[in-house]
Amino acid sequence: MHPRLAADHDGLPLLLESVRQHAAEVLGQVAERDVVPAAPVPEPDPLSAEGVGARAALEEFIACWEPVLSASAGPRYLGFVTGGTTPAALAGDWMTATWDLNAFSSLDGAGQSLERETIAWLRSLFGLSDEHHGTFVSGATMSNTVGLAVAREWLGEQLGVSPAEHGAAELGAVQVLSGSAHSSVPKALSMLGLGRRALIPVPTLPGREAVDVSALEQALREAEPDGPCVVVANAGTVNTADFDDLRAIAALRETYGFWLHVDAAFGAFAALSPEHAHLVDGLDLADSICVDLHKWLNVPYDSAVQFTRRPDLQTAVFQNAAAYLGPLGDTPDLAHLTPENSHRLRALAAWFTLRAYGRDGHREITERCVRCARALGTAIDSMPGLRLLAPVRLNVVCFTLADNPTADRLAALTERLADEVFLTPTVLDGVPALRAAFSNWRTTEADTRRVAASLRAALAAL
């Protein structure tokens, strides 16, 4: 054994204790450190031949790289839609790395069983029936890709062909209809051989990101002569957390043939709040669903889940034939359900946080984030120099400068805010804007007041 590896093996308990102590210090300070540090990124070093050992590597990481890392685990990182890691999820993630299971085969099946238990809990959390079969994947992009891959096979089934066997060209031109599709949808269509141009934008309701159901019906009527199509509905758009009328869209299947995929990356968590559960009414009617867990479930990156009513089509796409893998059977191994053969036991972090805090704990996180978003929206609405671009429907606040809202002026504003809060830029209806997304388990009303005060101060200096 290499001498440094042997030394680290012998000193592993002390090494892990050092990591534990430092991790606790980091998490104890994350709420007060600069959200986006201004320190320059270190120049890259060449790889050494002999190495330095784990303790020296830890010390070098602390000295060189930690000062430039953003506090994305903290309560005022409001960019993108980024959760943190609950204490239980952190413990679960550490145990995931400790056991280092590749949970892909029934030949060593305990990890798969744990994942299936976790999937059942998530189904219950989101109000889904047992007809939905789920699998963990790496994030919303992969979840949307898997759902649309199953949709692609369904299109083939309607036409009497199998894209998985003979290629996507067997389908001819495909139409994917959506009002406000997330950028991961055209990316998925590109990877699946359907092409970005398969995505057909459908008009949205006036002043909304929600699809106009009448316009969608017209688009379906026009598409009908060309064969079945796919509809991508949204349960929580990234700009304004807007929701399509899922039940009304699903009802259109009685007349038109289409696969209904719902992108509910963070919006699915509205089901936890009695006040907002109506937003996801009809989610269970979808043929496939995307939910991103490293957002509002607050588990570590990278973790998401995909659900579908057609696991048979899913295995038709992703089945993996190898002598060391068992047959598909009634309960296919995870190796047959996603693009990955290497299947990290991501479910364990979700298992830990769901077991630790239950439905009530995660409902409290969801409802507190919504209160924080409303409070910030109210503050912005009363703040001279800023204006809301949309109502605060759930956990996203979309706003801009009241006068001359250029991308450059907004960038200057966010630069002045960087030590206190991180916001991401966007464009809504042609207007450059900023958006704050609340999904971190640590964020409180006090953080919201602090963000509002920082906005006032930055405006005064702009």
From TrEMBL:
Top-level taxon: Bacteria
InterPro entries, A to Z: Aromatic_deC (IPR010977), PyrdxlP-dep_de-COase (IPR002129), PyrdxlP-dep_Trfase (IPR015424), PyrdxlP-dep_Trfase_major (IPR015421), PyrdxlP-dep_Trfase_small (IPR015422)
Key words of the record: Decarboxylase, Lyase, Pyridoxal phosphate
A GO MF label: aromatic-L-amino-acid decarboxylase activity
Biological process per Gene Ontology, one example term: carboxylic acid metabolic process
Cofactor entry: pyridoxal 5'-phosphate
Residues bearing the modification N6-(pyridoxal phosphate)lysine: 295
Family to which the UniProt record says this protein belongs: Belongs to the group II decarboxylase family.
Record-given protein name: Glutamate decarboxylase and related PLP-dependent protein
Species annotation: Streptomyces himastatinicus ATCC 53653
Organism placement in taxonomy: Bacteria, Bacillati, Actinomycetota, Actinomycetes, Kitasatosporales
